[in-house]
## 1
Amino acid sequence: MFRRFSALSLVAVVPLTALTLAAPAQARAPHRTPECQGDWLPATPTSGDVMSGKLSFLDLPAVTVGKDVNWRLDPYKNRSWQMVFQSLRWMGRLVADYEATGEEAYLGRAEEIAKDWVADNPYGGRTTSPYAWAEHPIALRAPALVCLSRYVKAGWLTNSLALHAKLLSNPKNYELGHNHGLDQDIGLLRIGCRYGNPKWKNLAVSRMVKSMKLDIDGQGALREQAPRYAIYVHDRLRVAVDTIKDCGMKVPSALATRWESLPRHISAATQPNGYMVPIGDGPADVQPTAFDHAKSTVQVFNAGYVFGRTAWNDPKSAYYSIRFGPALKFHGHEDHMGVTYYAQGRSILTEAGFVSYENTPYRRWTLGPEAHNVPILVGRKFRGHTPTALVSKSVRTDRQAFTFTDRAYGVPRKRSVLVNHREDVMAVLDSGGGKLQNLWHLDPALKVVSNSGGRVVVGDAEWKASIVQLAMPSCKPVGGQRVVRGQTSPYQGWISPAYMRKEPAPVIVSPVATSLLTVVVPGTDRPEVSCSGRTLTVHTPAGSVTLRASSSGTLS
């Protein structure tokens, strides 16, 4: 999210030229400093790239900027590219490498870049880049300018840092309970420490504690509704903690506790193949490094997640996720009641995922329920920002069951999910106040082998899995499933495997019914399914699984 500050949002009580800051030390021989070293620096572009005027961000092709940079460049019409460009962290890389190598040309070019940016982007100027004073670039740019100030003593730089501090400290501009707010606090703290301003330092740390207690709950779950952002927040909190220590301040215990609790959420959201489950604004190619995990193989987070697996540290473990909880915000999607399922070393049910933040028809589709494995009430309007409740759960080592309800379509909607381990089976029972259908987005590695009689068989080489659908309460097979792949009007049958990428992938669109039971059986193309009343027996290659669908719409 980007927001450009209005000129009215700047508290202009004291003219900028009258703002008094303690002068930084005189330029000196380079040595590694806390301001210029650390995890805040990007890996790309390198100093060599910057010196040659070639900038590559977000794995997009390099853009040549030349010596006199055009700060209104927007080559890819991409807000994320603009944010990184305007942050000047790539300029900070030059200063960091100057400290490491003593290469004077790096420092000289860094000063040229920063001075040119300040001259070409006056606050509120008519020709200023639209993203120059957006809230996130301000936050990320502040530490880069602080780093430069270790070696450059000039009024234009001191005044610019003063302006950055005023904007960052203005409560009207603060992103409370959000990763951007954390970056704003880090930027303000760095400026406050550099110039010995206790007001800015204390505000940054106290605000940081309040913000992170809102962003990370007592269970260690990030509330931004995209687990991959927990990695970003965890990394940035490490930078925040290091910055607090560099400033000679005490790290608040509440902040340390929240930081230390995040790894359990990150590990829970990581599939057995090492990649994070693509929930919310989370690409499917995010692969966390080793994070500590809880002992429990099943974790329910009040922030709106169920994560379960048969075992830790086993790539053949079965794994599933289910979404529920608070209404949509920040980086979430309309994915409540959505499930994913991984078993026998393969992703079976997945999500359309995240492609970019650009407001395109495809991006809008990925946000909506049709891009997720959810029940849809036919003929009723979807009501976004509706919370979903977890109304019952049963957690055993070999089997777990959960039931969820909401009114996302104006009438009751219910989904009950049962996952059986060892004999791998996932069963999902959908019901509600009217006709419904559900969607099952398959991993793009899977191909549809057959589709008939209410049974869709998918496969990957010799391995097969079956998705069987039954009408309830009759427990009779219901046919008529459609498999859609690569449809564009409207969008359906797509997966985003990585940022700015999408590829066709099969999605099963169920027939319309009043109640549907979907059974996913990994490892076979011929599962035997038999019913006796509301009791269902599924015969898998590993053995039989018996489950019951109650008249109230729950599985056990």
## 2
Amino acid sequence: MASFVVLAAGVFGMVAVAYANTPVPEDTQDTVDDRGSIIYYGDGKTVLARLGVKRTPVTIDKIPKHVQDAVIAAENRSFREDGGVDFSGMARSVWSTVSGAQVQGASTITQQYVRNYYKGITKEVSIQRKIKEIFVAVKVSRTLDKDEILTRYLNTIYFGQGAYGIQAAAKTFFGKDVWKLSVPEAAYLAGRIQNPSRFDALEGDKDFAATKERYGYVLGGMALIDPGAYDKYKATPFEKLKFTEIKVSETNEGLRGYMLNIVFRELKKYGITEAALKTDGLRVVTTFDKKMMETAKKVVNARTAGLDPTIHATVATVDPKNGRVLAFYSGDDFIEDFNNRAFDATKQAASAFKPYVLAAWLEAGNSLESYVDGKSPIKMPGTTEIRNAGNQSFGAINMVKAMASSVNTAFVQMGDVVGLEEVARIAKEAGVGEQAKGNPSYGGKNGVDYAVDEQKYQVTIGSASVTAVEQAAGYSIFANEGRHVPWHTVKEVRKVGEGVFIEEQRPQRQVISPESAADATYAMQAVVKSGTGGAANLGSRPVAGKTGTNNGYKDAWFVGYTPQLVTAVGMSKDVPYTMDGKRKLKVDKYGLPNRKIKSVLWKEEEMPSFIGGGGTPTQIWHDYMAAVTAKYEIEQFPPKAGVGSPKNLATPKPTPKPKPTDPFGNDGGDFDWPPDGNGNDNGNGNEWDTPEGRECVPWDGSCDAQGNDVGNGQQDDGFGTAPGAAVMPSPTPSGRRP
């Protein structure tokens, strides 16, 4: 017995010493007044959005007694009498774990306040932390009166839906000030304190069972605390509560909503939910350039003014060196038009896919000086007959001319030589076709794989479905010496007081050799200098790229780049019909039908012919890139590498011999020898030079008064729309109907 007394005295003495040596922290937590998150533009300084509701502190005289009692009934019924710790409550908590009964938590209001208010008291699950919390709570209860503790607690605690503090909660859920809350409303809010994020998720799915149970528990507790005041409310139906409508936050208004939408999706891959962003005090730095975003919108609106609202343009710009999405355009207002097309709209790449075919050709050891027969039409195994624009035949042409003039049959033959699987490998390693996996029409396949399996050689002229951001990131292999960095929109994530815990991911893959990239770029410069993409010319700033238009002008592209930026511009016309496909639906200025219509059948339809790849998309690209590249120094592409050896699939015409030197010595040199009808250049390396005085080149159809190809970008790639494109749903990033 004596030994037990000695042992007890020793334990008591140690506890007393520990208690005496545990001070009440002097510093409050950094986030005590704001646990919301901030999303920044790429500079890490300019705020893109603030998420979460800031607390609006109120004094105890503004908090009605029934609101105070509701919280006490929900969280700590002995609050007014206890010394900051409720040991019987701890015992009840253990019992609830065993029995499943719903009772108060083990922590008193004072303990919760201490945990959320002061620095140095973490939320880790450990005996040491709990003991420290208890000691501080006891000391706080002796230095602060109960009203002060309750006031601080109610201004600090989280209620859900981004609302911190009782005033913010009253505004968020009921649209009124805390002093106007009814007893049932106070009971509902008090019940939420237990697990606000869980209740948010359940109520978001229209599941109110847990909320109702907690509401009833709080009303019952209030009746126990003060029967005379609250007995009459015990049976108040939950259904009588009138909540304010929680609308889509104005945070999503305009361009901001599109940026947040894709950032939220990327953060989710790291395990960070939108709910966490509202509660965890995160600081997220995105990749976006605010001015570039605004410029994209301005240019698209200027170039598409007056067009049918069902015609949409998408833009995506990627830094080829690091995969950062610097800017994009999916629409003007995410709240009204929530289709994030730059990331979600899968459209046929058309001739803008041909650079991947050329890359495979060069990687196989074949050079740009190889010749192929540009005959039309051509029939390949497993593929319908493929023709050039206007069914024009070109004769023997080299790879540069094939690219500049977008000769379909040339690329079909190139694909046959290197193998469609190799073409697909390069395109997929460049990140192309991944979004199509989410479209049921493709059976879970990458868009390029689907095109190879189902459409065979048509993949070489662009039957694969891609998105604007995939194309921008894909062409990065040409601008970045053959290397691909996956596109992304998040640079880093920090937590207040804890530093960076998510760093930018920039893995690199060498998809093609630097030499192949240089030669492909050389060929694509021809597209801009004299081919189908002439409207993209930026003067002294070098530009390479490729146009693309499929049958009937349903999809039109220009994907181009400078040494510093890659930008893809795509256009399409998506028209809503009734589900039987017989009647077009009336649309608003965003090209969308009445939001009350639950089921819509979407069809791709022809755009006006001037919107072909070399037309409006290229003009948008030019205007936008002229503006956003102004801050960059003019850099040159790597010189032509001349990789590989000629592999002729056709016999080239002999190069004309130079005329003899002028015997009279008028200029001391050779006479100029104009190019022949096929555009041969007498060996000076400028394969795309046109005959003097001509405004167009004879092999590309731009001389045709009807403008069947280059002049207006009206090329016909010889295939139809993507699988399901005529009867497919428009992409909806958040699961909502377009």
## 3
Amino acid sequence: MRITRVLGTAALLCAALLGTGTARADAPGIETSYQNPVTALPPISAPDTHHCTVTAMQNDFGNTISSPAWSGTLTPPADCAGPWNKVVLTWSGSVQGRQYDRLAGVWIGGAEVLRTSTPEPTAQGISWSLQKDVTEFIPLLRQTQPIAVSLGNVVNSTYTGVYHMKLTLTYYQADHRHPAAHTADQVVPLSASTTDAGWTYLNPGQSSSRTVTLPRNLTHVGMEVYARGGGCDEQWFTSAPDDLAGKYPNYLCGGGPYREVQVSVDGRPAGIAQPYPVVYSGGIVPTLWRPIPAVDQFVTQAYGLDLTPFAGLLVDGKPHTFTVTPYGAADGWTVDSTLFLDTDHHAAQTSGALTKDTLSLSPTVTTTETPGAGDLVDVRVSANRDWTTAGWLDTSSGRIRTTVTQHASYLNTDAISSGGQKQVVAQREQGATVVTTDPQHGRATATRHSWDYPITVDSDVPVFTDGNNYSLSATVHQGRILDDSVLQGDHWRIVDRTHDVVDATGVLARTNGVVTAADGRDSEHWTGTTDTGACFDHLIRAAHGYVTLDRVTGCG
């Protein structure tokens, strides 16, 4: 049994001993409780306007692992019929007992509007809540839609935690001070179902394809993609080359650490996204994430791609196929996607062509292994991606040319020693996508989205005999740095920024079934701009499961 799967079991064994209440330790270095989860993310602003909150679902997820998703119907509130300035989704829940972290998703009208995962509980129970701005889905929300919620859980004599979940949507009416939100004209889900879980689970080498017929007067095509790894690919960034994984199969996953999310249109390469190194609440060492979760753990961000250069091929009234592939996957991945379409309001037909596509779906990945002292092996994996797509559309406003360029770099170093029990991983994914729009009449505009996903993991498994005898320790640094900019003259002006950093250290050990160590410290520092453009700086620090500092300050 690989230790990556044992970690989840260890988390459950630890969780059964934890409870809420005053911070305390029954023995030195043994946590017996932790408080409700907290994050440093900025709150979503609430417009000062008439609003209505609708409870879309209230359900207990017990032994649901093999059951269809919860399903129902979502109807716009009569007292807030729109137009709306904003729509906010709230996901809240509670759980107690012993339980794994669980992946969950919400679909409205077949479009995935939330992907999240759950915290692992304590014996006395925890509760948590998160919000997400779902304004971009207003084109679907205007009509009654089917709604589906998936949270596959296991409840039996050992794993007792039932997730008691509530889902609400709050609709904020537009008024003269809060104008109607600007959204895409149409939202087209590419999910597997409208009444069940819409994601698709892919084994290594598989892809997910959906075929749709689109409006004949397209002017813009955007896509959102969700992709998360499972099994050994839950922590794909710590995977080793196959020769080392085969040598130490109890501790290492194979396949190497390089992953990318590829999108094709009718078989043509159309875009890629570097996946974020998500860590679940039971990942690496469970005590790392109590009470502050890892980045992306509770509110998973979708990856945005601009497919407008392909619009000229999509307006012929024929079916077209969109394909998502988790390249490099060595275990299962869960993927889903949605299209966001703008159309010409003054013409029933646009026409155009794809003029450039330099993207290859076969990246050049370089792997080197350098032996060191003892059984130490230093592994270095690197890759660079540079590509361009371009196309034009003839619209009622004249010809519009769109060019998408991307540069992405990747570097992962992994010092593996002690028969695979010790790993020191440092990974950096970073890059930028620039979209240039050049109309026949008017000035060209350009936007740039840049990202930086650093993560370091120093982990050690000095003892592992079985689920009752083991010792785990780790230190993790994880960040997500995002900048959105617009070109002004010869320089880029940042209009939106996120700088989210989590640092955590934790230990967990059992001897003959008895917990002998369970402790952790973590912190999160979020700086950047809120959804109103204001500057926000929030620092949280915690030790032994409880917050020791929670500070919001002004920033420049």
## 4
Amino acid sequence: MSQFWINFIFVVGSFVIYTWIAVWARARTTREFYIAGGEVNPVMNGAATAADWLSAASFISVAGLISIGYVNSAFIMGWTGGYVLLATLLAPYLRRFGSYTVPDFVGKRYASKTARVVAVLCLVVISLTYVIGQMTGAGVAFARFLEVESSTGLIISALVVFFYAVLGGMKGVTYTQVAQYIVLILAFTIPAVYLSLMMTGHFLPQTGLFGEHTASGMPLLQKLNEVVRDLGFQDYTADVSNKWNMFLFTLTLMVGTAGLPHVIIRFFTVPNIQDARWSAAWALVFIALFYTTVPALAAMSRLNLIETIYPNGTKAAPLVYEERPEWVKNWEHTGLLKFEDKNGDGRIQFYNDANKELTTNAEWAKDWKGNELTVNNDILVLALPEIANMPAWIIGLIAAGGIAAALSTASGLLMAISSAVSHDLLKNTLMPHLTEQKEMLYARIAMVGAIVVATWLGLNPPGFAAQTVALAFGMAASSIFPALVLGIFSTRINSKGAIAGMLAGSLATVTYIFMYLGWFFIPGTNSFPNTPEHWILGISPLSVGCIGAAINIAVSVIVSLATEDTTEETKDMVRHVRYP
């Protein structure tokens, strides 16, 4: 059987499962549509939360980022730490409050429609930013593994999400995400185990990372450091130069991810506060299973890639282009891997040509005209089974896993947008007399609208897609997270303080990002070059979200203290959430 049909069976088979679940778990009431009836088992909800959390960025991109070196471990520390913040500071109390959505909590806690609308706007900006990457990621996976145009793959993905999200609501999304977690974790860990056994003899990738590289007899990390150093790259285990910025970046990822609305809403779906705690614990277990595998997979994948290009070692001649393996040809078609024979010798020169010391002093690089192979880090995981000559069924499995990761998070984000529009903007602000039947109808219409917008953005991604990731984390960190934490832990913060804080924190964060990445991300409009020497106090645009959060908290406190006190009813509400 050809590889195409194997991939087809895995991908379509997973879609059949998702569709069957959607039919079985279709929502019949608004409570089932918004929070799955509040009756999800904590273990199941933990798996669904993990699937919501582990987006296409986690599945496809994180290993590629960390393959560059230890410096990018901030992504894992920040995202995992953010979940711990969410699980301890927010989840149990939000579940006890009993709201359907994040803006619902903000609107009720601060007794303000304006605060609710501001929260809705922040939620929509954050979620739409995130969903661009999910839909685009699904399109890339389809383009490679089912040999269709990425736009065709994206539309297929949108139709699948449309069916199970519109029909099933949060109930359908929850049980579909459980299946998607199983698919994505198997798709990620099986190739990692295979590669670990192949390169180190260790069954567990987590121990293989610190084991011996079988072919050389050296410790794996030492061998990796040696080969990347030979090619002019930074050591894999090299320390980060700007620890201050790394600390702030990690903190921004933590508070930003803890404020992501599509994950917060998951804790409203369990029966009680104790189940919310157990749900958080199980989700952390499922997330840890994935993230502890990532560093090992990243290191081994990079070493495996380099050994493919330099089969006789980095001091010998590299691979002849015409003798390149099939996986190189396959990924060249996607545009994510490119070769340019700059010196015309027919071999693939892969090295860091920005390293002037190497290109000046290394005898073997004298006749080279520059790096000839461009490898997008996002392909490391998806291409891994082909690079390592794994069985064909593993390639099919990883195809289904990459698509599952994209769809699970996309459905959660679309659900968050739909709920915010129908429940918070319409039912609780503009059209308070909506019946439950009408609210369900508008919820489904809002979901359709969100899917259409997300699909359009996926088909026409803005040129600034990478920059908007910074905007998403910055907005979540500087707007939603402080409003939730202050609303839970302080009886004194009033609506004026919360609104002023959200606006001030968001404005400061967005302004700083625009200063370096361009105003509204329009190329050439940035006020300063995005380089370390121009950053204020050494803070990069990616790291400013936690500063925005601090500004939000400070403004919220100052404005609240300068204006009227909260009512006794609000104080009692907060005390009930904290001390039932």
